[in-house]
Design a protein that fits this description.
single chain, about 375 residues, Aminopeptidase, Alpha-Beta Plaits, five-stranded antiparallel sheet, elongated
Length: about 375
């Protein structure tokens, strides 16, 4: 079965030029539903997640029955893109796709979507039997995996699948860290900085003392911590009453994740507790609140698991050599794995993502389509 290169290129271009920044996925959702309907989808489900995500669309679950008696699988992509994403125009130079430079291209994740569409077109025109397959297409991935978090996993009938959403090519991501999101609020006492500074307690100074002591950056080969924003204070002549710090801890080890998170909590708590009032004039005492929420769970797939054995066999059948890697970022696959859906991440060829220099090669999308076809046909049953 030959992939139609120019049809794939045209489909990719069309997808990219449908603007779909996070929460504004309505147009791309309608387009995808129409395309898969024309390809003979047995069922198209749009879930009710829009009310929780704020998107113009729910997540899509698109089912094809398939004639092979093979284990059902799913492919997952997200339909949203990061900003700047208004008025995307695709520039093609030979087989290299970029944007005209004022916006992102959108290959994250429309390179994956284009490969899914082309694979089903090839199967349809060649009248080849294939395994039962679902396409799980989420909203709001780029703003915190929001669509995947709102997806009811019971809507996905296949229990194993592949998230087509990573840079590079012929890479399979098998491990990704869990992450805790931290919101740390240090509360001091406001006072006029010129008239009565001794009446106040500076929340910013206390926050700075704690930040100077907490673990940050790369902690070890499995663990990182970062503090990304700090806000507080009202004016230069007011002792700042509040400082709010947003940060995160990530680790491939849940024990290390909890240990580092706990250490940060303890340092902030101890720093505030150690405050003293040198003049005895302060109009109150400081306090701190450390709020922790899990952003996404850990993803851990071992090489002997069926979802990885299957993609290895499919790649071998088309002469493709895959590499297997650990990642430092989170994706929808973290959420799916956390919900009991074994999901490996497969790279699509996109590079320089989340920038106006984003690009992708047509050959990489062709080869990705070939891999999907191998996964869908008897070579990997």
């Amino acid at each position: 079965m030959d992939v139609n290169r120019e049809r794939l290129a045209a489909s990719f271009t069309e997808l990219c030029e449908i603007d779909s920044p996070s929460r504004r996925e309505g147009r791309i959702s309608r387009h995808l539903q129409q395309v898969f309907r024309e390809l003979g989808a047995a069922e198209i489900v749009e879930d009710d997640s829009a009310g929780r995500t704020g998107s113009e669309s729910g997540n899509l679950i698109i089912r094809f029955a398939g004639a092979l008696e093979c284990t059902p699988i799913f492919f997952s992509c997200h339909m949203d893109t990061v900003q700047p994403a208004e008025g995307v125009r695709v520039k093609r130079s030979g087989d290299l796709f970029t944007s005209e430079g004022d916006t992102v291209l959108g290959s994250d994740d429309k390179s994956g979507l284009a490969a899914c569409i082309e694979a089903m077109r090839v199967l349809r025109e060649n009248e080849r039997p294939y395994r039962p397959v679902e396409f799980v297409i989420t909203t709001c991935e780029e703003i915190g995996l929001v669509g995947a978090k709102a997806l009811d996993p019971a809507l996905v009938r296949a229990r194993e699948g592949y998230a087509l959403d990573s840079s590079g090519f012929a890479r399979v991501i098998t491990h990704a860290p869990a992450a805790n999101r931290l919101t740390i609020t240090v509360t001091g006492v406001a006072a006029h900085a010129g008239l009565h500074p001794e009446w106040g307690v500076s929340a910013l100074i206390l926050a700075a003392r704690a930040l100077a002591r907490v673990p940050s950056g790369r902690i070890d080969e499995e663990t990182t911590a970062n503090f990304g924003t700090i806000s507080g204070g009202a004016a230069s002549n007011i002792v700042p009453e509040k400082a709010v710090i947003e940060g995160e801890v990530r680790s491939h080890s849940m024990a290390k994740l909890e240990r580092v998170t706990g250490e940060i909590r303890e340092i902030f708590t101890a720093t505030v507790a150690a405050w003293t009032d040198p003049t005895g004039s302060a109009k109150g005492t400081p306090a701190v609140d450390v709020a922790v929420r899990q952003d996404f769970p850990v993803m851990q797939l071992e090489r002997e698991e069926p979802v990885l054995r299957r993609v290895e066999a499919a790649a071998r059948s088309i002469g493709m050599t895959l590499t297997y890697e650990r990642a430092g970022g989170g994706s929808d696959a973290n959420i799916f794995n956390g919900n009991g859906l074994a999901t490996a991440i497969v790279a699509t060829g996109m590079t320089n993502v989340h920038s106006t220099k984003e690009q992708v090669e047509l050959q990489d999308m062709v080869d990705l389509t070939r891999l999907l076809l191998a996964l869908l046909t008897e070579s990997s049953c």
